[in-house]
Amino acid sequence: MNRLTAVSPAPHPLSEDDESLWRTATEVLDANWRTDHTVPSGTLYPHQWSWDSAFISIGLAHIAPDRAWRDLRSLFEAQWPDGRVPHIVFDLGVAERDYFPGPDFWDVPAMSGRPPRFSTGLVQPPAHALAAWEVYRRAPGDASAEELRRLYPRLVALQDYLIGSRGVSGTGLASIVHPWESGLDNSPSWDMALANVTADESLLLRYERQDLKRAAADHRPTNDDYARYIAIAATYRNGGYSDVDLVDRHLFVVECPAYNSLLGAAEHALARIAAVVGADPAPHRERAATITRSIVERLYDPESGTFRSLDLKTGKLSTQRCVNGLFPLILGDLPRDIVAQVVAEAESARFGINEMMPIPSSDRTADSFDANRYWRGPVWINANWLLARGLAAHGYAGHAATLRTAMLDLVRRSGYYEYFHPITGNGIGAGAFSWTAALVLDMLAEVGPRIGDPGTTRMSRTR
Predict the structure, then answer these.
(1) pLDDT per residue over 408-453, tens digit each?
(2) Is 52 a catalytic residue?
(3) Class of 16-171+258-298+327-445 per CATH?
(4) Is residue 69 a contact partner of residue 144, using CB atoms and an 8 Å limit?
(5) Fewer CB within 10 Å, N- or C-terminus of the chain?
(6) Any idea where the domains of the chain sit in the sequence?
(7) What b/e string do you get for 157-178 counting C-beta neighbours within 10 Å, with b at 16 or more?
(8) Is 418 an annotated catalytic residue?
(9) Which Pfam families match (predicted)?
(10) What's the pLDDT tens digit per position in 214-266?
């Protein structure tokens, strides 16, 4: 396939600085392309990640729609018979020693025409229907409509799995069974639930961490956390990845507001996709409404004006204020009074929307805040991109524009990093990171933040 850098102009004139961003973002995605998918980075993450592929496809839609669709198709070719889409699809050409936990640890049987041990047994946030709809909107036409027709039943099967097999509470919400499934791996949001999981660091003598060979230890989850992650994953694996009696049998079972907000956004997107492919959109709209209602009833804390994760093993809400508590803003049918309270939380000193820095991953004022360590404080572009969409959808155009400007300035200053220091703006984690590059392309392609799919746009506020 031809290189992208010479054939992918921006859709409208850009400033000299933004033209440079467009070109270098394209180069990042080009360098990370692997025949039928894009890796998150060429060093730390040498396989295909689930929700990364969703964000990456949105950026690719602007420069290479065929690659955007191929990325999504490649991921869903690894879909399990029960509908789950694994959080990692392994490149079996990458040596086991180059990433842990790799295929041998997960020990997944052959299925769906794929070889043994081709994936993990976990899932990640269901951003894929939203991505498919965004790719279609950016690259409309018969070819994209046909891609939607192919993907639609697979996207529905994923939703059915999450709402059914993972719907422990029977309320329309999905539970996660590992912090890695949230995408916000070591967020303080999981601290209470993880406190009840024994940290056996002898596991790390048996299983050597590979991430610390490529990233600074104070930027990554601690050994204590990692030992818990391995114990939880091994328990799920040893149980055959069964979702029966999860609360009784599993070590970690949580309803996350970010995960379920994307679950609801997926149903809104599927309603739109259904109208294109000739399916009935009504069931998707009904499920979306149920999900929003349940998120409010189960995960909203009116005293703090934010959403929190719910530990299904103890029935307790997390006490931590984290960025996942802001994610319900992406739901256009979120009640207006609650929107105002969540925006106030985003405006507060805890998260502080301002022109200098995007929103951090956790409460800046909390004892748990760590400016360097993964999801315990740093800024992530994908989270802020989603929040900008949500703010725009609810009429907070000024806030959405502020986030867009802050994100682009941050990348322009520091580069396409995996995440960023929330005070200095320095890049942290993997460099040349694909979803950062992809979402920069999407922001540059728009005159302003695009209003999200769900709900009705309200009168603009610039508070």
Answers:
(1) 999 999 999 999 999 999 999 999 999 999 999 999 998 533 434 3
(2) no
(3) mainly alpha
(4) yes
(5) N
(6) 16-171+258-298+327-445
(7) bbbebbbebbbbbebbbbbbbb
(8) yes
(9) MGH1-like_GH
(10) 666 666 677 788 889 999 999 999 999 999 999 999 999 999 999 999 999 99
